[in-house]
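ok, trying the design again with the full structure, not the truncated one.
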């Protein structure tokens, strides 16, 4: 049996060179030797994502979640898949799960997750949140080139604002309503910490994905007043 570290080095070279089929063969050999190799499953998902087979990549990541529901890399890669498919709200939820579960010593990975989170906020037209995420990424890991790049573009005024998909405005309205409800329940006018905000936002995103998003066609036919009433009717257990 070949040394695992050697196989991983071969896989990395094949992925870098674009030999995706070759990388997949080596990764599958690792999984065959150890069906619980969660790192190998994530590598396999990366390979399929690079190949453009998003459905296969997601299928592999779901297997990874069964091995460890809290494994941060799995949530990070699921987030990337949602991002590339344009499912930005789902991507945000997964990036937050990754950030929550990375160990303190895994600063570069946590920083990457914040960078991806910023990219997702930017796609949604949530520019202030995007900038905060990129600054957080650099604070955690100052060598993060992607975060530096985006913040440099922001400072130079060269970043163009993208047109947000219409549903995001409904999400922002829904989020604002639920945040107000939460703060009133707690008897305060602002969050005590960033962690508290993230926890509340994750629940709001989860509720949006599981309940509101299913009514997207219905939302398109609603007036603004009807939407507000609909959003207020949905209950969240904070």
């Amino acid at each position: 049996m070949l040394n695992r570290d050697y196989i991983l080095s071969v896989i990395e070279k094949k992925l870098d060179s674009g030999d995706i089929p070759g990388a997949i063969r080596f990764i599958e050999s690792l999984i065959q030797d150890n069906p619980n190799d969660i790192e190998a499953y994530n590598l396999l998902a990366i390979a399929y994502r690079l190949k453009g087979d998003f459905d296969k990549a997601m299928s592999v990541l779901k297997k990874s979640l069964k091995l460890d529901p809290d494994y941060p890399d799995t949530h990070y890669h699921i987030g990337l898949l949602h991002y590339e498919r344009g499912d930005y709200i789902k991507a945000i939820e997964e990036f937050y799960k990754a950030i929550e579960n990375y160990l303190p010593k895994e600063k570069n990975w946590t920083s990457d997750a914040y960078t991806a989170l910023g990219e997702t906020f930017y796609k949604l037209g949530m520019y202030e949140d995007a900038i905060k995420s990129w600054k957080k990424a650099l604070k955690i890991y100052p060598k993060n080139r992607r975060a530096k790049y985006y913040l440099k573009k922001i400072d130079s005024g060269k970043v163009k604002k993208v047109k947000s998909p219409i549903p995001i405005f409904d999400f922002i309205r829904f989020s604002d309503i639920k945040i107000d409800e939460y703060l009133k329940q707690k008897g305060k006018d602002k969050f005590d910490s960033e962690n508290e905000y993230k926890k509340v936002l994750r629940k709001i995103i989860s509720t949006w994905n599981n309940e509101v998003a299913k009514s997207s066609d219905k939302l398109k036919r609603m007036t603004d007043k009807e939407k507000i009433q609909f959003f207020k009717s949905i209950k969240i257990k904070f």
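Keeping the full-length input from now on. The mean pLDDT is 89.
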